[in-house]
Every structure is written in structure tokens, then in C-alpha cells.
Amino acid sequence: MSDSLETPLSKVKRGPNRASYDKELALEIIDAALMCHVGQTKNGQVFVTPTCHWREGDYFYWHAHSKARNVKGPIDEPEKVCINVSLLDGLVLARSAMHHSVNYRSVTLFGVPELVEEKEEKVRQFELFLDKVSPGRWETLRPVSDIEIKATGVVRIKIEEASVKFRGEPPIDDPEDYNWPVWAGVIPLERSWGEAQTDPQQNENYPAANTPDAF
Amino acid sequence: MSDSLETPLSKVKRGPNRASYDKELALEIIDAALMCHVGQTKNGQVFVTPTCHWREGDYFYWHAHSKARNVKGPIDEPEKVCINVSLLDGLVLARSAMHHSVNYRSVTLFGVPELVEEKEEKVRQFELFLDKVSPGRWETLRPVSDIEIKATGVVRIKIEEASVKFRGEPPIDDPEDYNWPVWAGVIPLERSWGEAQTDPQQNENYPAANTPDAF
With contact defined as beta carbons under 8 Å apart, do A55 and A71 qualify? Predict the structure, then answer.
């Protein structure tokens, strides 16, 4: 059993039988997904912003234009944001409408974003991000410029207050419904990387980039 | 040009060149996705909850246990929630780290949730939901019971305040980088429904359920 991420805030109120606070499991789901949804408020109004994330150790990172809402916000007014990372894994088709569900993996994180400001550290984080998106690609790219480093905000939260919810099993019907004459089961959602589409503006032939393990 | 969903709140501040307020486009993206992320606050803390959604006409629907956070909340204190629907379509791999991106379709909606309370209307909405998840399945299921109808909350917002953001093109590099010796282009993310996994507790053979057009 690894560290627990349970706190009064991260404790799951609904469907606690599908909840976990196991840190290793949370990290695994975070790494398996490319995108997350960041929730925060501005003048009392909630906003949800989809963005790509990466992780190093116990920290969850995302980036945006230095002036974007989900980077600038935390400087204006420290707020505990809520971030959800979800992967839909399949449809769960039961014998009654009520017991239909989906199989999924989901992590909900809470934390006050910290801005990463030190230049070398920002560049190191860009490299880790690129490495997640396309392993080995960083070294082959035109190096980053000072202007680009300044223009890109990097923020992180420590992964210490979170919950995991997951479902990965056949439908669970009411006992008296198992003989209802209809197919029941799971239809898995499959993800894969398709054929690389070379930029039409590219004249030379180079081997296509590596694809990530995350989706 | 269809109706515009632009309001001061839904107006996109960052990357307005990728923004649209076209209602038809928003509806198309909403229908293409099975899952959304609902953002709302409770006692000043923001929460982001992934859930499945469906649509009828100008209304965006979701459901949850009658006592769940994203159904009960709106009754306690009317709040304009923010809902994001996103589909990741591919990796955009440029010649510099800075111009890496993703292709995606995304809709951000705002609205005060209304609870659907009338029994027949709730059942009609369950049917529309099932029809999205597995066309034609509703009629084959064990009919819903009164207890199930009571236990399932249905909420909706009118689709009238929203923005669309999308990207669906090759990388756009700085002009001087186009000869940098590295592959650049798009790697599309492909989704498909895998082989149906029959419930191990099923003894009879029935044809597997239909799969949805949404992912």
C-alpha cells in the first residue's frame, strides 16, 4: 500500500466503493492521460479549462501562455484549484437502463498552483513534457529561445490531496434481471495513434516522431 | 452562419483565432463526445466532475444520483456552472518545442442547471440518453421502475452561452525553422469500439449491443 491522498476535501462522497486514495494508482492514471481539466474561479465564476499535463515525482505540471487564465489566476489570488484527469475505457451495458455505466479511470486533484519561475527549471520541465508527448524528440528540435521561455508559464501542484475513482468490470444487474433476454456486457473503447501525417510544408524525408504511451 | 453563443462570459480571451461561437458547430462537438467535465463550487471550493452527457435540441443534459454533488448543488444555491466537452484529435509536432500543440475540438458552456422533475419527462430523457449510448437498446431493456426514476437526478442547461475552440491543422512553425532537420506533422488519435465482451454471467446468446457514434 503506497501513501494515501485522502483528506476531508478529497474524500469521495458518492460511490465510495469505487474510490481509492492510493498514490501509486493515482500516478499511474495521471501518466496514462495526456489531458486534464483544470477548474478554478475568477470573480466567483467557475471555469473549466482542458489542457495537457505532465508529472515529475510528486508534482503535477501544466503550462499555458504566461497570461492565460489558468496560469495568471493563481498569482492574483491563491486558490485551491481542482483538476480532473479522466480516461473513458468502455461502455457498460446492463439489462436495465439504471445499471448502465462506463468503465473509466479518473483522478481528482486539489492544490494551490505554484508558478515555476527559474529559467533552467522551466526548460527542464519543457523537456520532460516533450518527452511524455514524443519520447526522444526534445534533442532533435530547434533549441528554445529566451523569449519562448518567458512567454510560457509553467505551474505545478503537489500531488498530496486527491482521489481516484475507477470502474473496470462487467455490468452489475439486479439479481432478478439476469435472465432478461438482452445482451449485456462491456464494449471497450480503444485508442491508438494513427498514421503520421507529414507536414505538407516539409520537403526532406525524416523518420516520423515517436508516439507516446499516454492518450 | 447559425446562432451565436457569444456573451461577455463565454468570450475567449486567449487564442481567439481558434475560437468560434457558432451554435451548429458547438452542437456537433457536444454530440460527438460521450463525456464532459462539470465545474461548480461548494462553499467556495471548485470541483470538477467528469460525467456523461446528452443533448436534445437547445438543451444539454446530464444525470447523477439525486444526491450527488453535481445534481444537488444547483438546488442549494443557483450557480452558473461551467461545463467543458473536449475531444483530443491528435498530436501536433513542430520543429521547435514552443509550437508543439494538439489538434482538438472543445466546447465550454455556461448555465444555471435546471432540475428535470416531471416523471414522464425524466423517462423520456433516459431514453434519449440510452439512444445516444447504444441506439435501439432502450426498447430491449427491463423497463425502469418508479424507485429508479426517483433515484436518478436529471439536470440540464440551455445551450445559449458558450464558446468553441478547435485546432485541426499541421504545425505552424516560425518561418526560419521550416528547414530544421526533423520530422514535423500530425499524429492522429484514433478511437474505435473494440470487440464486445459478453457479461460472464450471461448464459443465452444474444446479438451484442449497437455502438454509438460518439466517443
Answer: no
